[in-house]
Design a protein that fits this description.
By secondary structure, the protein is mostly helical. The protein contains five helices and no strands. The two termini are about 25 Å apart. The mean pLDDT is about 90.
Length: about 120
């Protein structure tokens, strides 16, 4: 399976919410929401809030807080595929988030190293 790298470096092609949304599988979305409610101690997560067409989608639905995500808004404004493609990579908009997702940081580091 090929990767779909989000602005923050997450791989959408491996994301349960993205996959369930793209498959139109409401039962799978409910299952992911239930899992994430526990994992993230966030009782407000429901199937609707994890419906996702990918953070770079210009049409469709953005998952959770993606519509207000500072790294995403910045990348869209600059016309960048992801933060690793940015000459200012490692700025305050993305660095705090990457502390919590080391796999995503590694992807972005690799992308940035090829600039």
């Amino acid at each position: 399976m090929s990767q779909i790298i989000a602005v923050c470096g997450l791989d959408c092609a491996a994301c349960e919410a993205y996959l369930a949304t793209q498959a139109g599988d409401e039962a799978a979305k409910e299952k992911v929401a239930a899992k994430w409610r526990v994992e993230y101690n966030s009782p407000q997560i429901d199937a609707k809030s994890i419906t996702c067409d990918g953070c770079l989608a210009t049409t469709g639905v953005l998952c959770g807080h993606c519509s207000e995500c500072a790294p995403r808004l910045c990348a869209v404004e600059r016309g960048l595929a992801n933060c690793g493609s940015c000459p200012d990579y490692g700025c305050e908009k993305i660095s705090g988030l990457l502390q919590y997702i080391p796999d995503a940081k590694a992807r972005l580091d690799t992308i940035h190293a090829t600039l």
